[in-house]
Design the sequence.
């Protein structure tokens, strides 16, 4: 059974993926989110290696959402179907984490292998997260307090985000 906190958490995640706000996730929602984030973080032009990688992983995420949970075969993912997908450990490890990490790598504007606060805020704002919420999240993730997020810190955060 899903707790109220889990339900609220998944609803917030669902709303971020339901870009057009129609109550279901469709491939167009994933595509719009990916393009919006990549443009916002300055990941170059469509067709570059970064774009192809992130778009490919976004397409994989969509296909896994659809294949693994679209019980009624309507080509759309409801909130209930979404929760079922994200609670599958294989989905997390094989789809969600690689997708999120690819976006994080695109966000790393200076290519130093870590995410600065400014890079983090740019990414979170592109996803529609309020600045104060994004700042608080950054501070929680930055385990060593050095002002940068490492790949390991990000992986831990992604897994916590989807499982707690």
Sequence:
């Amino acid at each position: 059974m899903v707790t109220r906190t889990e339900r609220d958490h998944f609803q917030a995640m669902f709303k971020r993926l339901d870009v057009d706000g129609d109550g279901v996730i469709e491939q167009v929602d994933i595509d719009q989110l990916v393009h919006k984030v990549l443009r916002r973080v300055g990941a170059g032009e469509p067709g570059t290696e970064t774009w192809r990688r992130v778009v490919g992983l976004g397409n994989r995420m969509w296909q896994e959402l659809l294949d693994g949970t679209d019980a009624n075969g309507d080509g759309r993912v409801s909130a209930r179907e979404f929760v079922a997908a994200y609670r599958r450990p294989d989905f997390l490890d094989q789809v969600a984490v690689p997708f999120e990490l690819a976006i994080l790598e695109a966000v790393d504007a200076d290519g130093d292998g870590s995410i600065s606060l400014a890079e983090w805020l740019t990414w979170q704002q592109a996803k529609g997260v309020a600045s104060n919420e994004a700042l608080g999240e950054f501070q929680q993730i930055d385990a060593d307090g050095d002002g940068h997020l490492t790949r390991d810190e990000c992986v831990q955060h992604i897994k916590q985000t989807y499982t707690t």
